[in-house]
Amino acid sequence: MRAVERGRAKARTWPTRPARVSALEPWGASFWAAIVGRLRDWVQAEAGPGRLLPYVPVAFGTGIALYFAAEHEPIAWVAGVAAATLGIVAILLRRTRAFPAVLLIAAFAAGFATVALKVQRIAHPVLDKPVQSVALKGFVETHEERERTDRFVLRITEMDAAGRAPTLRRVRISVRKGAAPAVGSFVAMKARLSPPLSPLRPGSYDFGRDLYFQDIAASGFVLGSITAIDPPSDGGWRLRYAAIMQGLRDSIDARIRTSLEGDQRAIATALLTGRRDAITAPVNDAMFISGLGHVLSISGYHMAVVAGVVFFVVRALLALMPALTVTFPIKKVAAAAALGAAGFYLLLSGAEVATQRSFLMTAVVLIAVMVDRRAITFRTLAIAAMIVLLIAPESLVHPSFQMSFAATLGLVALVQIGMPALFTRADSSATARAALWGGREIVTLALASLVAGFATMPYAAYHFHRITPYGVIANLLAMPMVSAVVMPAGLLGLAAMPFGFDGVFWRIMEVGIDWMIVVALWVATLPGAVGRLAAFGAGPLLLASLGIVLFGLLHTPLRYGGALLIVAASGWALLTPQPEILIAGDGRQVALRGADGRLRVMQSGSDVFRIKEWLAADADSRMPDAASLRDGVSCDADGCVAALADGGLVALSFRFDGLADDCARARVVVTLAQPPPDCAARLVSGDQLKSNGALALWQTGGRARNRDSGFAIEAVRPQSRDRPWSPAPVTAAAAANLQPTSPSPGGSRPRPAPVDATPAPADQAAED
């Protein structure tokens, strides 16, 4: 027995001959095996403990994005049931390997259901055609001061449009500057109302969608005077709160107005109250062109300054009492005081999306200080994103949310990955010496500006068609002054207001604002300061967003895959073809691309805002009144005509008399008159524009959707699209049986009127 065991042991310990590699084995198999093994190690590292939470809001937001991409309104209760079911499945599988995938799928479904259920809850009618005169009574809920006019939101209690419009809940009204009624007042007026503004071209921003989620059904302007009358009932606590906060903002603005004027006063008010509409257009444009526009939008920077100043002041005051430093947690008390100040700043500034995100992240950081936990992490950003999306899921498609969270993701990644690698090396004596002279702060500010600029670049290019190549220079020159002078002086001014000593602080604030304006105007005039990019679709933006998320959240070399996605998205965006023809939704303006590749404009009337948007989307620096926009355009009393790059004519017909000649000579004819039945050209009629909105046309062979007469056509409202904020047009046959009453649960479609169901006399005989 022992001999057998010795034999087995000997067999086990005998050295084996290495296996011979087969000649058929693929060349480089060991190399590819090493690559696969390395990738497996990186994936396992990314799937470690605590790495799942930051991806939950990403999946949640993806579900919201899918909702907005739908052509028809989803059934909300079905989406809700599906999300709840997947959530229960995720809980049941929480101890299995499938839990991460199931959780992300459940978060995706929850995002889709959240926005669908909100639309179900806020469903309201939307004005579908202009109303020239309507009598309104209601409560004033908000007040905005702008450069040329003021405007306010009216919650309607009585509306008399002589049956020409559905009963609306809220409208936004423009008035002469200084004539807006006070928030909380009950007023009566006459107004001219128009439907919410539709996208000005296919793919452009949908302002009507924004107004729908704000419960605003129309916009317009006052006709005549506004009369304040006694309200029929109490406006509710929300109105009282809005009146109090608006009164506080007006008081702050009035005190600033006693010391400052012009853009200095407008910027000071914007920094403290969030009201930035009074800034003049040249300064406002210079701020955004130079990369300092983020200063005007209260966000993480402002919230951090407010909370930081209060935190250090309270902590320093408490530290003056030696007994408290030993027995009292002064750091936690200072954090609580800073949290209260940040909350007050949130309410005072109007609680926009960027401000909500800033407050939530600041609150998480301060709470972490109070409970002795690590503060600035990806979890902090994930929690803030989830709360914002749960409260306002529609904010996902707003540029403020996209740019704010993209910049913050980049900065958090910089703090957690870049800063330790840059400043915590053992042999950093040179870095330490530079830090003594402020080098570290300068490098940090430059890196933060670069990271935030690159992270927000895709969204600025998509929404505003421009980038800021000199943003780092402007931020390096202006932000130290804003941080050290402007914001602290503003906070001290607010604190000194009750005692009447605030004037000196407004003057100090003015010095810093003057410097910021000088920097903005100087940088905006540098060669190439305006980086213009032509419009591109949502595809490159989604690909770039995925790249930013992966590059920011991943911590292994897999993150460089995100950089490749960003590069691919950039190439896709730059190669996007631009349309040859743009047609306005009202048929009064047509832009076409001439032989030099630039747009020409034919129009009846003038809409500067639309032309400005068309030029910006075409990366064209010309102003709407540029004479070159009319080069090659021939107009008479019957209409206008101009030639495309290939010589084909496009006609804009004003009257029926000239249609016959236009149909015989032009390739495309746009007219609001009744078209002839035998027009040989591609005819764009008023009925088509009313149904489909603005149109973009490409030469056949490009991005085809509907091909007709050598053109591919894309519409703002395709015939298959029907959403609550942009309902499908009702056909003439169906309109005869419809009346404008309360909206259906899923949107703002009218309800059918009762129909006489009595059979004809010949059919009234009894049947078996």
Poorly predicted spans? 1-25, 702-708, 732-750, 763-768
Percent of sequence in beta strands: 5-15%
**Shape descriptor:** globular
Helical run tally: 25
This entry's quaternary arrangement is: single chain
Give the end-to-end Cα distance, rounded to a whole number of Å. 101 Å
Percent of residues in helical segments?
Answer: 40-55%
Give Rg in angstroms.
31 Å
- Widest beta sheet: strand line-up: 10-9-8-16-18-17
Number of strands: 20
Overall mean pLDDT stands at 82
Largest sheet: 6 strands, antiparallel
Look at the helices and sheets and give the structural class: alpha+beta
Architecture overview:
The chain has 25 helices and 20 strands. The N terminus and C terminus are likely disordered. A 6-stranded antiparallel beta sheet has the order 10-9-8-16-18-17, with helices on one face. A 5-stranded mixed barrel has the order 1-2-3-5-4. Helix content is 49%, strand content 14%. The chain is α+β, with helices and mostly antiparallel strands and 768 residues long.
